[in-house]
Amino acid sequence: MRLFVAAELSDELIDALADTSALLRDAVRGRFVAPDLFHVTLAFLGEVPAAQVDEVGMYVRSACEEVEPFATSLGPFGSFGRVSSAILWQGFSSGRDHWDFLAERVRAALRDGGFSIDEKGFLPHVTLMRRADLTHGTLPMPCVARGSVDAVILFASDLSGERPRYEALERIDLL
Length: 175
Ligand code: 2AM
What we know:
The protein is of the alpha+beta class. The chain has three helices and eight strands, in the order E-H-E-E-H-E-E-H-E-E-E.
Protein backbone atom coordinates (compact mmCIF):
# COMPACT_ATOMS: atom_id res chain seq x y z
CA MET A 1 0.00 0.00 0.00
CA ARG A 2 1.13 3.54 -0.71
CA LEU A 3 1.30 5.22 2.69
CA PHE A 4 1.86 8.68 4.07
CA VAL A 5 1.41 10.34 7.45
CA ALA A 6 -0.34 13.70 7.59
CA ALA A 7 -1.54 16.26 10.11
CA GLU A 8 -5.26 16.93 10.34
CA LEU A 9 -6.16 20.63 10.20
CA SER A 10 -8.97 22.24 12.22
CA ASP A 11 -12.08 23.58 10.47
CA GLU A 12 -10.88 27.22 10.72
CA LEU A 13 -7.80 26.32 8.69
CA ILE A 14 -9.67 24.15 6.16
CA ASP A 15 -12.28 26.89 5.61
CA ALA A 16 -9.64 29.56 4.96
CA LEU A 17 -7.76 27.23 2.61
CA ALA A 18 -11.01 26.56 0.73
CA ASP A 19 -11.54 30.34 0.45
CA THR A 20 -8.02 30.74 -0.92
CA SER A 21 -8.67 27.94 -3.39
CA ALA A 22 -11.89 29.65 -4.56
CA LEU A 23 -9.95 32.89 -5.20
CA LEU A 24 -7.35 30.96 -7.17
CA ARG A 25 -10.01 29.54 -9.48
CA ASP A 26 -10.46 32.97 -11.01
CA ALA A 27 -6.73 33.56 -11.35
CA VAL A 28 -4.80 30.39 -12.16
CA ARG A 29 -5.25 27.45 -14.49
CA GLY A 30 -4.37 23.95 -13.31
CA ARG A 31 -5.70 21.04 -11.29
CA PHE A 32 -7.27 21.92 -7.96
CA VAL A 33 -7.06 19.75 -4.87
CA ALA A 34 -10.55 19.23 -3.40
CA PRO A 35 -10.87 20.83 0.08
CA ASP A 36 -11.76 17.49 1.68
CA LEU A 37 -8.27 16.30 0.74
CA PHE A 38 -6.34 19.24 2.26
CA HIS A 39 -3.61 18.03 4.65
CA VAL A 40 0.00 18.60 5.65
CA THR A 41 2.26 15.65 4.85
CA LEU A 42 4.59 14.87 7.75
CA ALA A 43 6.25 11.77 6.27
CA PHE A 44 5.87 10.01 2.93
CA LEU A 45 6.56 6.26 3.06
CA GLY A 46 5.53 5.12 -0.41
CA GLU A 47 4.85 1.41 -0.98
CA VAL A 48 4.73 -0.66 2.21
CA PRO A 49 3.61 -4.33 2.29
CA ALA A 50 0.07 -4.64 3.69
CA ALA A 51 1.38 -6.94 6.42
CA GLN A 52 3.48 -4.08 7.86
CA VAL A 53 0.76 -1.43 7.99
CA ASP A 54 -0.14 -2.16 11.63
CA GLU A 55 3.50 -1.78 12.57
CA VAL A 56 3.67 1.61 10.84
CA GLY A 57 0.61 2.65 12.86
CA MET A 58 2.32 1.57 16.05
CA TYR A 59 5.40 3.71 15.38
CA VAL A 60 3.28 6.73 14.46
CA ARG A 61 1.24 6.28 17.66
CA SER A 62 4.35 6.14 19.78
CA ALA A 63 5.69 9.32 18.13
CA CYS A 64 2.43 11.15 18.81
CA GLU A 65 2.58 10.34 22.53
CA GLU A 66 5.36 12.91 22.79
CA VAL A 67 3.50 15.72 21.00
CA GLU A 68 0.76 18.04 22.27
CA PRO A 69 -1.86 19.76 20.08
CA PHE A 70 -0.70 23.18 18.89
CA ALA A 71 -1.92 26.39 17.27
CA THR A 72 -0.73 27.57 13.87
CA SER A 73 -1.56 30.33 11.39
CA LEU A 74 -1.80 30.11 7.63
CA GLY A 75 0.69 32.22 5.71
CA PRO A 76 1.86 32.99 2.19
CA PHE A 77 1.86 30.94 -1.00
CA GLY A 78 4.85 28.98 -2.19
CA SER A 79 5.49 26.72 -5.15
CA PHE A 80 7.58 23.73 -6.21
CA GLY A 81 8.64 22.88 -9.72
CA ARG A 82 8.39 24.67 -13.05
CA VAL A 83 6.51 27.96 -13.25
CA SER A 84 4.38 26.66 -16.12
CA SER A 85 3.39 23.47 -14.29
CA ALA A 86 3.88 24.07 -10.60
CA ILE A 87 2.68 22.68 -7.33
CA LEU A 88 1.10 25.69 -5.65
CA TRP A 89 0.76 25.56 -1.88
CA GLN A 90 -0.07 27.68 1.12
CA GLY A 91 2.32 27.67 4.06
CA PHE A 92 2.23 28.73 7.70
CA SER A 93 3.39 31.93 9.36
CA SER A 94 3.40 30.72 12.95
CA GLY A 95 3.73 27.44 14.78
CA ARG A 96 6.85 26.46 12.80
CA ASP A 97 8.69 25.04 15.83
CA HIS A 98 5.68 22.89 16.63
CA TRP A 99 5.42 21.70 13.02
CA ASP A 100 9.11 20.80 12.92
CA PHE A 101 8.89 18.95 16.23
CA LEU A 102 5.85 16.93 15.15
CA ALA A 103 7.36 15.97 11.77
CA GLU A 104 10.71 15.08 13.32
CA ARG A 105 9.13 12.85 15.99
CA VAL A 106 7.10 10.99 13.33
CA ARG A 107 10.05 10.67 10.95
CA ALA A 108 12.44 9.53 13.70
CA ALA A 109 9.99 6.88 14.92
CA LEU A 110 9.53 5.49 11.40
CA ARG A 111 13.29 5.45 10.78
CA ASP A 112 13.83 3.66 14.13
CA GLY A 113 11.26 1.12 12.98
CA GLY A 114 13.37 0.44 9.88
CA PHE A 115 10.99 2.10 7.41
CA SER A 116 12.40 4.25 4.66
CA ILE A 117 10.78 7.62 4.15
CA ASP A 118 11.19 10.40 1.62
CA GLU A 119 14.09 12.37 3.12
CA LYS A 120 13.32 15.71 1.47
CA GLY A 121 13.51 18.36 4.17
CA PHE A 122 10.21 19.06 5.91
CA LEU A 123 8.45 22.26 4.86
CA PRO A 124 4.91 22.45 6.27
CA HIS A 125 2.52 23.25 3.44
CA VAL A 126 -0.92 22.44 2.05
CA THR A 127 -0.99 21.70 -1.65
CA LEU A 128 -3.85 23.61 -3.29
CA MET A 129 -3.05 23.06 -6.98
CA ARG A 130 -1.00 20.80 -9.19
CA ARG A 131 0.14 21.64 -12.73
CA ALA A 132 -0.57 25.29 -11.95
CA ASP A 133 0.34 27.68 -14.73
CA LEU A 134 1.97 30.60 -12.92
CA THR A 135 3.38 32.27 -16.01
CA HIS A 136 0.52 34.76 -16.41
CA GLY A 137 -1.33 37.11 -14.12
CA THR A 138 -0.95 37.71 -10.43
CA LEU A 139 -1.91 35.58 -7.49
CA PRO A 140 -4.64 36.78 -5.12
CA MET A 141 -3.88 37.48 -1.47
CA PRO A 142 -4.23 34.15 0.33
CA CYS A 143 -6.90 33.90 3.04
CA VAL A 144 -5.34 33.37 6.43
CA ALA A 145 -6.68 32.01 9.72
CA ARG A 146 -5.46 30.67 13.00
CA GLY A 147 -6.44 27.15 14.00
CA SER A 148 -5.13 24.01 15.57
CA VAL A 149 -3.51 20.71 14.79
CA ASP A 150 -5.11 18.08 17.02
CA ALA A 151 -4.60 14.81 15.22
CA VAL A 152 -2.33 12.83 12.92
CA ILE A 153 -3.61 10.41 10.31
CA LEU A 154 -2.00 7.45 8.60
CA PHE A 155 -3.32 7.49 5.05
CA ALA A 156 -3.26 5.00 2.20
CA SER A 157 -3.33 6.76 -1.14
CA ASP A 158 -4.84 5.21 -4.22
CA LEU A 159 -3.80 6.89 -7.45
CA SER A 160 -5.54 4.47 -9.81
CA GLY A 161 -8.67 6.60 -10.31
CA GLU A 162 -9.29 9.97 -11.91
CA ARG A 163 -8.49 11.80 -8.69
CA PRO A 164 -6.39 10.57 -5.75
CA ARG A 165 -8.29 8.74 -3.07
CA TYR A 166 -6.94 8.94 0.47
CA GLU A 167 -8.19 6.37 2.98
CA ALA A 168 -7.60 7.13 6.66
CA LEU A 169 -6.27 3.89 8.12
CA GLU A 170 -5.68 5.26 11.58
CA ARG A 171 -6.38 8.59 13.29
CA ILE A 172 -4.34 9.49 16.36
CA ASP A 173 -5.39 12.34 18.65
CA LEU A 174 -2.60 14.51 20.03
CA LEU A 175 -3.08 14.81 23.80
P1 2AM B 1 2.37 17.30 -0.95
O1 2AM B 1 2.51 17.02 0.54
O2 2AM B 1 3.32 18.31 -1.46
O3 2AM B 1 0.95 17.63 -1.30
C1 2AM B 1 0.39 11.88 -1.00
O4 2AM B 1 1.03 11.69 -2.21
C2 2AM B 1 0.96 13.08 -0.28
O5 2AM B 1 2.34 12.89 0.06
C3 2AM B 1 0.88 14.37 -1.07
O6 2AM B 1 0.36 15.33 -0.20
C4 2AM B 1 2.32 14.64 -1.48
O7 2AM B 1 2.73 15.93 -1.71
C5 2AM B 1 3.10 14.00 -0.36
N1 2AM B 1 4.45 13.59 -0.75
C6 2AM B 1 5.59 13.90 -0.11
N2 2AM B 1 6.66 13.33 -0.66
C7 2AM B 1 6.20 12.64 -1.73
C8 2AM B 1 6.81 11.84 -2.75
N3 2AM B 1 8.14 11.60 -2.77
N4 2AM B 1 6.02 11.32 -3.69
C9 2AM B 1 4.69 11.54 -3.69
N5 2AM B 1 4.05 12.27 -2.77
C10 2AM B 1 4.77 12.82 -1.80
